[in-house]
Amino acid sequence: MNIRWGEVTGALLTFIVLVVLPFVAINYLPSNILSQLSATGLDARSLATQTAMLGLVVSAIALTKAVVATTSITYLLLDVSVNVVTLAFALHIVGAGNIGSLGLSSFNLKQGKVTTELVIDLRIFIYITISVVALSVLQSIVRFREARAEGKRCQRPTRAFIHVTEYSRCIDPSRS
Amino acid sequence: MKASRVLGIVILILEVASLGLFLICGQTIFSIMGTATPGGGELPVVEDPQSQTAILTFTFTPRNTGMLTANVEVGLGLTMNDGSFETMNKTTANLKPGVGRNVSLSIRVPLEALREYSNAGGTLDIFTSIKTLYDIIRLDYIVKSEGGN
Fold first, then answer.
1. Does residue A149 fall inside a structural domain?
2. pTM passes above 0.80
3. Hey, which of A67, A71, B39, B149 has its CA 20 to 30 A from B104?
């Protein structure tokens, strides 16, 4: 099994940022802030848990990717699924836990006789994220095709000497 | 250069630009929000017994300490719960970075409606809407205060 340690490190970092950090942050938040957020309809603990769950999925896929051959169809599918989960993650964060809001969030807080309503329109960032994810999926497909083409070019030669030279370039790019 | 690498650079530029835009817009909106939103206190009421009306005035002091130009819409209104009376006075101020403005809004309310409001029959509505980045990013802040003790 060929392990790409760079991708393993990336998966580990993803795990720390998206799984460990939300749990640590929520435990450091004072309880009065948590109850204030809860009064607006935003359950911070639930939001942190959902963020960590999505983070866990992303880091698990990223870790699996690190051990799968870049020329296999599994790698392409994993690469695309990371992008799709990343989109879900962005929708989740910008929508403050409500993926269906698509970046248009609304919060209500009633304290005694005063009702406060807050509406935040961040839909442009959702459109940008969708564009980034679409480009990332395209990049995954292009990278996969490039890896396959490279793989075909670098198959072990059997006869001609010229092919041996080319093969040596494939396994040691510094020779080219 | 490989096509995948070119795409990677485009994606990176998009990501960095959107993150920068998010931070700049957030800083602009929250800098105005801190000054434009109502902080409580007494609302001056001037009664006119002849016309049996009262004038309520509220002064907003939005100040843009952010990096982008913003349009700030502020409004003051009174709404009766039974729908018998409803009024709202709104205005919009265009604030360039570093610019502040005092905006006074008044509404004329019948004394009867004001009495009804005092008996918890309605809400005093204070509305602030901050838009930036060519009005693409928006934050609305609406405070509805019920009358009565």
1. no
2. no
3. B149
